[in-house]
Structures are given as structure tokens and as C-alpha cells.
Design a protein that fits this description.
Layout: H1 2-19, E1 31-35, E2 52-55, E3 59-62, E4 67-72, E5 77-80, E6 93-101, E7 109-114, E8 122-129, E9 134-141, E10 146-147, E11 160-167, E12 170-175, E13 178-184, E14 197-199, H2 203-207, E15 211-212, E16 214-223, H3 229-238, H4 244-249
Parallel strand pairs: 7-15
Antiparallel strand pairs: 1-16, 2-5, 3-4, 4-16, 5-14, 6-11, 6-16, 7-8, 7-14, 8-9, 9-10, 11-12, 12-13
């Protein structure tokens, strides 16, 4: 009993000091570009210098938090320049964004892309497929070197939060904070290409295979590391969808 008391009290103190208050995750760690769109432009709010340029005449309306950019489905798109384009190669990264479609199309609508040409081998390309009710994710470096079956279903016609994480040879997609699928390859993929990251401007729009997005974009984040499932869930909880309309009315 005496020996038990000798380690029991220090053990309690250790639990109290180190276990009572777990380390909190900071959403800015590893954040290399952040676009709130609250100023109705595409400035990089992380101060990393990766500002975007608006083309066409995107509008501005309420989003999941503050303002969002509004795209007309015809001429509007955004291209992001600067350091943000250096992180899409063979290294880990996380992409996170919210979008809200406004109107459907028989053709896939271009969302985020980093792809130099529609027949480019190395590519990262997101499309909204309203007919199949899913977000098509093309993450590949050739016809056989690809992460397959990453495309999550579209949970509804309102706001949607989508995240893509690459961690080594693993890729994961998330919808509204929940893991949809994890795909593991025997080796990673290098998707480095000469294109800038863009929204609603996939090269397949010019090739006729897709159209520009009609709807809203908000809270785009790019990390130079792989966020964990718990961190993706925490990221979504910053701006949960049930608060989006309340924010719009406030």
C-alpha cells in the first residue's frame, strides 16, 4: 500500500497537468492560402501573397460566413496566382472549400482545377455532376496512374463542404466534415503541371466537355500538409451548414 501511494499521487498530478486540457488544433498551422471572399474579391487572407484575379463579373452575396463569390455559369471564373501553385506536386496537401449550386446543367460544372489541358496527364480537377448528384474528383497522372473512386455524392442542393487530403500514397475525400472514402495506392502521384489553380475554369470548359459553375464559392483553404479526419471535422465545425442561412440573415 505504501508503494502504491508513492506513485499514485504523482500519476494523478501528471494526468491533471497533461491530460485534463488536451492540446487544441489551430486551423492556421500549415495554411498556405486562405480565401474568405468577405471583401468580394479573391485576396489571400493568409497574407501569403497568393491573390486571385476575378474574370468576367462575379457577384458577391452572403456565404457560410460573411460574403461569398457568385458565378453566373457563363463568363465568371477565378485564377489564383503565386505560391499556392507550388504545393500540388508529390507532397502532402489539403484542399477545403464550400460551394452552393444555383441551377443545374446537363454538363459537368467546373469547380476547382489545376490542369493545363483537358488531355493533360497530370491533373487535379473537381466538377459538379448534377445529373449523377456527385462531385467528380479527377486526381491523376495518366490513364492508369490515378486515385479512383474519390467522387463523393452530393448531399443536397444547398451549401456543401468538400475537402480533399493527400497524405503520402493515400487520398481521402470528405463531405460536410465526414470522411467519404480513403484510397491507397502502392505509390504516390506527382500532379505537378504548369497551370494555375482556378475555380470555374477547367480547360475542359474550352474543350466542350464541361461548363462554368453557376452558384457560390466560399471559404477556400489550401494547406501544405495532410489534415487528419478529426481536423477536417473541426474545420467544418467552424462554419457548419445549419448556420449559413442565419449568417445570411444577420
Amino acid at each position: 500500500p505504501a508503494a502504491m501511494k508513492s506513485w499514485f499521487l504523482p500519476g494523478i498530478l501528471l494526468v491533471f497537468c497533461f491530460g485534463a486540457r488536451p492540446l487544441e488544433w489551430t486551423p492556421d498551422v500549415g495554411l498556405v492560402a486562405y480565401y474568405t471572399f468577405n471583401h468580394c474579391d479573391a485576396r489571400d487572407d493568409s497574407n501569403g501573397g497568393s491573390d486571385g484575379v476575378l474574370f468576367g463579373d462575379p457577384g458577391c452575396h452572403c456565404g457560410v460566413e460573411g460574403n461569398a463569390l457568385v458565378f453566373d455559369g457563363r463568363n465568371d471564373y477565378v485564377t489564383f496566382f503565386g505560391q499556392v501553385n507550388r504545393y500540388f506536386n508529390s507532397s502532402d496537401f489539403t484542399l477545403s472549400f464550400y460551394f452552393r449550386p444555383e441551377g443545374s446543367s446537363a454538363f459537368p460544372q467546373s469547380l476547382l482545377s489545376k490542369r493545363a489541358a483537358c488531355d493533360e496527364a497530370a491533373q487535379l480537377d473537381f466538377h459538379l455532376d448534377a445529373l449523377r448528384q456527385r462531385v467528380e474528383v479527377s486526381f491523376r497522372n495518366g490513364p492508369y496512374a490515378a486515385y479512383r473512386n474519390l467522387s463523393p455524392p452530393l448531399p443536397g442542393t444547398e451549401w456543401v463542404h468538400v475537402a480533399l487530403v493527400r497524405e503520402g500514397s493515400i487520398a481521402r475525400t470528405y463531405v460536410n466534415g465526414h470522411l467519404y472514402v480513403e484510397v491507397n495506392r502502392c505509390s504516390g502521384l506527382d500532379i505537378d503541371n504548369a497551370a494555375e489553380l482556378a475555380f470555374s475554369n477547367s480547360p475542359c470548359v474550352r474543350g466542350g466537355g464541361s461548363v462554368r459553375f453557376r452558384g457560390r464559392l466560399d471559404q477556400l483553404r489550401v494547406y501544405d500538409r495532410a489534415l487528419s479526419p478529426a481536423q477536417i471535422a473541426a474545420l467544418y465545425r467552424l462554419f457548419p451548414l445549419h448556420r449559413a442561412e442565419l449568417d445570411c440573415l444577420s
